[in-house]
Amino acid sequence: MSLEQLAVVSAPQITFDPKYPDRVTVEFTPTVPHCGMSTFIGLSIRVRLLRSLPQRFKIDVRVKPGSHQSEQALNKQLNDKERVAAALENPALLEVLEQCLSTAGRTPHED
Amino acid sequence: MERIDRLVRTWIASEQEQEIEDTVKEIEQGNANLLHVVKSLGEYLTSEEDDLRTKGVEFLSLVIARCPPEKLNRQSVRTLVAFYCGKLEDTETIIPALKGLITLTKLPLFTSIDAVEVAKALFAHVKMNVLVQSQRFMVFTIIDNLVANQREALKNMGDEFIRGYVGLAEGEKDPRNLLLAFAIDRVLLIEFETTKFIEDFFNITFCYFPITFRPPPNDPYRITTEDLKAALRSCLHATPAFGKLAVPVFLEKLTAGSPVTKKDTLDTLNVCLPVYGPAIAREFARKMWNTLKLEIFQPTDNVTEEKALKTMQVLIQTIYAAPAEQADDAEIEGLAKEACEECIQILREPEKSQAKHAIKVLCAFMSTTASVARFTLARAVPHFVKLFLDPDELPNRTPTLRLLADLIEAARESTSHDPEVLPEEGNVPLSPYKDEVIGVLTVGLKTPATAYPAIDALKSMVRTPGLLTDEELGFVVHNVNEVLQQDEDETDLSEVSLDLLCTVSAVAPSHVSGNTLPLLFSALPDRAPPRDADAERIKYWRTLASLKKLCTQPDLFETLVIRLSTKLDLLCVPSPSSTPTPTEDLEPAAAYAHSILKTLADVLSAKIELGHTDVVKYIDRLVPRLYNLFILSAIGAEERPMVATDPRLLAVAAQIVTLVTQTLTAPRQETFVKSVFAAYVDGDVSQLTEGIQKVPAGKRFSPLQPGASTYQKNLLVLFSAAVIALHKEVTLPVPDEVAFLDGLLQWIVTHAENALQREALMHLIAAVVNRHAEKLDAFLSSNIDGFWTSQIANQSASPEARRNAISTFTWLTKALLVRGHARATQNVDRLFELFDDEYVSWDAARAVGRIPGTDKVLTKKNHAVLRILYAQKYCNSVLPRIIEGAKASANSPRQNAYLVALAALIKSVPKSTYAHEMPSLMPLLLRGIDLPDNEIRAGVIDTLHAAAVSSEKDNAIIAEHASSLVSTMLKNSLVTQMPSVRVRVAALRYLAILPSVVRYDVLHPQKATVIRELAKVLDDPKRVVRSEAVEARTNWFKFTG
Predict the structure, then answer these.
(1) Could you write out the DSSP letters of every residue in A19-34?
(2) With contacts defined as CB-CB under 8 Å, which chain A residues touch B1019?
(3) Are B548 and B598 in contact (CB under 8 A)?
(4) Which of B125, B525, B775, B874 is the most exposed place for a label (fewest CB within 10 A)?
């Protein structure tokens, strides 16, 4: 099952304001309010976008309002540049993250 | 005599082969007989010394084994048998004695009396447990010989033989011996009176079940587990008497065994149950059902589940097959009834996962006996119908219908054993329920969720021979049409509905052509929707797609052709009354006409794939109408704009003409070509065209005349389309083919106005040259020579004209190359001469590369003359030359031409032809990337990519050039430096693959640069480039040491 199939992420949850063409807001819905993987899901989304979008974009990753018990803390953590950078310097964390993202692109030799 | 004496003595001392052979030779030549041998051996045979006695008997056995049978008479056989039987008592001589007996028991002179004696002696004296494997093997071989040759005598021995044999066979462990023992067991069980000993036989066979033997590595006898299993199985089902004892064993193995044991047990049960008979099956029915149920409802794996279902079927068949087709259907008692009730009980909750297993059991029942099948349907179908109609069960309609569909499909499978024999009316098991089932299914069609299973079920019903009447089929078609109409947003539903309609059209095309087709045709507008009417355009696309899927069936295709060609005429020919408006937008009409033509072409090619024979007749029905339309339009276009002058329409029409021509026989092609030539060469269109709108009498159709309009000249596409699929036996209706071809060649040079016309004639010339090269020597030598010197080698001609001439020349060469004609090589040599040319060197180089490429004209389907592996042969001769040329001198234009030729060649031949040259190609390809031609660059990068993908990890050549490759590819991927999208995509693909073929330490210095540069590419204006950039950048992020 992918996150898309679980409806954790979906196209309508990605929004951007035409007035600020370089800002993207990505919202995701944890499956349960006490989901422990939420930080990780948010981080994966952020890293994938960091790698796939030109640098001019400013990305906001948030959980859907009211869908998680520690919504505030989570949003703060996910949009804190320092903490994201620190997380990415942790080799163990990075390895798990790569695993999460391993199916994000095409599988090699697919085309 | 003395000689024998001497030989015997020598052998006893030396034990050499030679003496035995010499002795046998003596006997063969009649110089001695066996009596002499025995006499000479005398002292040894009776010697007090064990060793000598053994040797004596051994020698005798060896001699007998090699002695020709005719040298033994009845008397000597008799004596020898008695002698050997006596020797069995002696522990020292038993082994050679057994050897002797093996030979003797095979002899024709060996009689029943001997057999009994040998058997008795074996039983009396041979102790199996003191013998080694090979000796026991001899014992089994002797018994096998006896059973094979002297069965009656052994039968007369009665219990004594059986008891004796069981004694010998007990406790055997060696696989080689067991194979023999099982074979003997089977014969004894089938032919001998074994009732008293059934328990003994049970013990010496069932103790081996299940076989867990695993052959040791390097087994010299090569006995596999399968051999043993099969041999044992053949014993286990040798007699019904085993039944009572065996079934409990099987059941025990089934409950306790490993998956492998389970499968083996189930397979064995499948063959055993029919032999054990209905009485046993009935006795253990309950227990077996309980055990099998476990395997079916909680399966360990699919294979076991399937086998369990199969065993279930066998069980039911065994129980109910016996009372030869019960007349009264109601009298199904016992297991089938109980199991069926049990399943129906589970099926009350169709949404539960257990229901899937239950329906499998019922489906399995369908292919057991007719009475059980009828009984099952009588229980299950009304149950499902009731369930479906129950308002409380509304949410469960989808699973209910799914289960019903499975059951109907199983019922269909069980009836359609012989497609030729139609069952009698009403004899189809499902017949009594078909009305209610169709009722339920049509209700099911109304909602999307239930429509899928309903359509599946209907399809199974349609495919059941003799089930639905013609009227009912009409009803089904009518209901499915509604589904098709309601399905607005192109879901899979229309896909499956069309599939069902296709199935119906295979049995009853009239309903589909009578109901569905009018519906679809009426959905097609008569006039093309204007440019901005996207929705309507999508609608006609969909309708045409449906028609395409549906109309492969011959009757339907006929209707399709009539309706679509009428629509086409309507669309393309303006009514004479309407005033021509020069500003009229013809594009939408052309697009619509293109879709219609494309539909026809696609269905035609699908029909040809399927081998339909009715395609042929469309040479009279469709092709003349097309010619009529296009010729009419071309002539009309001189006065007012016409839709059917669009080159894209011409291309599809040409495809249709070629497809139909392909299927014709040579004589029919000949007449067709005559009419085509009459029109194109002589201007007589009457034979070729046919249609309501006639070509105006005053106008002349003369596309090959110098003064003809562009529209007329464009129609050469349809001229060529008719010729390129001709058989090689067909001659062109012209007085002189050489002059004709030369005329066309000159026409290309002097009169052709655009690439379309040029290509059409090039294809035509190539096709004719390919078929008739042997008759065209004059053309191939002098005319082509002339063409070369005047049009290509001639420096004063314009580069553009020379380029066109080169491509004509390429086609000519290609036509010769594919048929393995010698002149192809000469032509290629000439192209090489141009590599120094200032203007056309690259064109010549590309031509060299493109000649062996595949195309749509010179194909097998078009009946071209093809030699196998022509591309490989070409590559073998040209590739070394190109490599050499490219290496020869640095930085000259000539060398670049070689690189261009290389890039083009690699693109047009299969990879295997140049794979072995890859190491020497790599440096050249790397230089090729720098050539200032985007097409070539992209081709080279693609080749590098393909080479990198297929090369093993740590490719030395790539690693060596890694850093330069990275910087070149980065340059080629930036929109600021590389305008071609194709090159950017190719370069990014190559960058994406690099991390997986080069070691990290080699590329480590590049990583930061690549990631930084690719960040810029992420902002590329083209979406496809951006997505490739994401892929490449991700790979580089992940690339760590």
Answers:
(1) TSTTEEEEEE--SSTT
(2) 54, 56
(3) no
(4) B775
The label of the residue with tokens 């600021």 reads B976
A103 touching B (Cβ < 8 Å)? no
From B1030's Cα to the closest Cα of chain A, the distance in A is 5
List of chain B residues whose C-beta atoms are within 8 Å of the C-beta of residue A95: none
- Tens digits of residue pLDDT in B271-324: 888 888 888 888 888 888 888 888 888 888 888 888 989 998 888 888 887 554
How far is the C-alpha of B407 from the C-alpha of B413, rounded, in Å? 10
Tens digit of each residue's pLDDT (9 = 90 or more) over B915-949: 777 778 888 888 888 888 888 888 888 888 887 87
Q: Which of B1016, B1031, B1038 lies nearest to residue A106, judging by beta carbons?
A: B1031
CA B233/CA B191 separation, integer angstroms: 17
Least Cα distance to B505 among B564, B459, B544 occurs for B459
Residues B161, B167, B171, B172: is their CA dihedral positive or negative? negative
Q: Which residues of B touch A106 (CB under 8 A)?
A: 1031
ipTM of the complex: 0.90
Residue of chain A whose alpha carbon sits nearest to that of B1037? A51
Q: Which of A51, A52, A108 sits opposite B996 (nearest CB)?
A: A108
Q: What is the C-alpha R_g of chain B?
A: 42
Question: Quick one: chain A helix, strand, coil %, rounded to 5?
Answer: 40, 15, 45
**Beta bridge partners of residue A59, listed in sequence order:** A24
Positive or negative CA dihedral for B388, B392, B397, B401?
negative
Radius of gyration for the alpha carbons in chain A, expressed in angstroms and rounded: 14
What domains can be seen in chain A, in order of their start residue?
11-103 (3.30.300)
pLDDT digits (tens, 9 = 90+) for B628-639: 999 988 888 888
Q: Could you give the percent of chain B with pLDDT greater than 70?
A: 96
Q: What is the pTM of this model?
A: 0.72
CB-CB contact of B669 with B730 (8 Å): yes
* Tens-place pLDDT, residues B676-721: 999 998 888 888 888 777 777 777 888 888 888 889 999 999 999 9
Do B596 and B607 form a contact (C-beta atoms < 8 A)? no
Say yes or no for a CB contact (<8 Å) between B1031 and A105. Answer: yes
Q: What distance in Å separates residue B918's CA from the closest CA in chain A?
A: 20
Q: CB B857: neighbour CB atoms within 10 A?
A: 21
**Chain position carrying tokens 């976008």:** A49
